[in-house]
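## tool: complex_structure
## caller: assistant
## args:
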Amino acid sequence: MVKLNDIFVNRNKKSGNLVKSKGKEVWVYILFGIWALINLFPIYWMFTFSLKSNGEIFGENVAGLPREWLWSNYKRAMAVGNIGRYFANSVFIAIVTIVIVMLVSLMATFALTRFIWKGRKQMNKFFMLGLTIPIHASIVPIYVILSKLSLLNTYSALIIPYSAFSLAMGILVCTGFMQDLPMELDEAACIDGCGAWGIFFRIIVPLMKPAVATVSIYTFLQCWNELMFSTIFISDSTHKTLPVGVQALSGQYMTEWGPIGAALVIATFPTLIFYAFFSKRIQESFITGAIKG
Amino acid sequence: MKKLYSNKLTIILFILPALLLFALILFAPIFVSGYYSLFDWNGFGKMNFIGIENYKELFTSNSIGFLKALGNALLLALLSVGVQLPLALGLALLLGKGRKGERAFLSIYFVPVLISTVVIGQLWLKIYNSSYGILNAFLRSIGLDNLTRIWLDRDTALGATFVPILWQYVGYHMLLMYAGIKSVPVQYREAAMIDGAKEGQINRYIILPCIKPILKISTIFAVTGSLKSFDLIYVLTNGGPLHATEVPSTLMISMLFLRNRYGMGSTIAFLLIILCFAFALIIGRMFKDKEED
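## result:
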């Protein structure tokens, strides 16, 4: 089966041998170009109309670059649409979720890979089931519990379910990295007088940076884009996340495309920036999640 | 060392947070949903046990239209397997050859997967907008005025919502398949070329059998993803107009939060989970049989 490390190492190896006729090559690149256009055009269009007036968007200049760069659209999205607040909410929820997922999955992985006990393989399998469980199952029971505990419209209403649903991925990635750490490290620390917690926090956790990065990015994307839980569990405007806020804004101000476009850009650019820096890691995390699931 | 790593109490302390989150948020709700599905319940009043009446009503009542919604989801699954996956496979095969710039194209094609479905939904709403949308503007500009229409009305809404759903995840499947293709040892390909195999033959007899596990995963994701589909339909049409684009998830949400039928909502949720697991098993079986031939 696929061994992950090889995927990106193999690239371009012996590429000269594998590609033949020149004429055909041109067509392949034209095809690539067209598909790239189909993928990027909506995003390009979003960036341009977020800076245009309705006059330009609705006829004078539908697809071109904005003639007059209307940054006021962004101000309006912030002021009227409360997008700044929703942005902060989304950031807060994502960060807390990432911290919880990291801590809990590192701890669980530590118990699963370092300790010797009966049933740890089964336990690992049990956690991996989490990769395939759809969130649909949880909607009603969690909604009922949240409303009984009056936790609807709070940050925890989203943070707890998000953490639970990202945990499987966290454990999967951490296991891969933690298994590669030699046991000699633990032994040395043990001789120096470290207990289990000491080994965990002083030796293991600091060495898990690559795993932390991968899981954090993956969890961030899950939280940032999630819609079903956030629409249902959050209805007051102080706790709305970006997706729900953008939805509300475009429902209220249907004809003001400029500010809506600005809100869409605000909701998208953090993801794109992350992707620009960590594209390989992000792609790898999606591959890992899929193949093990 | 051994003593340190077999201390029961430490193991429990390390694994407990993960186990609790998992059991309470991911697993228990499945059974609770199954339990709720046997009741007539409005969410706060008394729960009346009605056995399998919800299931009977779901499959026989025309006013709920569950079969229509399920049919829509299955149609989406069919299109996903029949259009989205072949497209992804074709691109992955072309990209996997070791051409210049393949990583750049790969990264571009993955962008839509990362963008929030709300943003994508809002963009496509604007693409489809009948007066100002870019699709109609484009048709007018090339003189095809007679093809312009209200894309999200009853006749074309289903197709119009399917296009962005299929479009968004081509890149995802392509990435998985590309990873699979890249993990096929270059020597296989070279050996086949020396034996005079054509490109089509290499793809058919060497690459495809090697990436079968990935094709299985992609098929399972495409089908279960279609059954669960929610976000884009919720943003684009919310199941309308006149239930034309209803899928089980949108139906579930409207049962819960518009009609306060928690029992019925749970029934749909529970059926969806069963269907997803069933399809995953069946597809897994289908791929296995072929492997043994």
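## assistant note: Chain B touches chain A through 102 residues (CB under 8 Å). Chain B is about 70% helix and 0% strand. Handing back to user.
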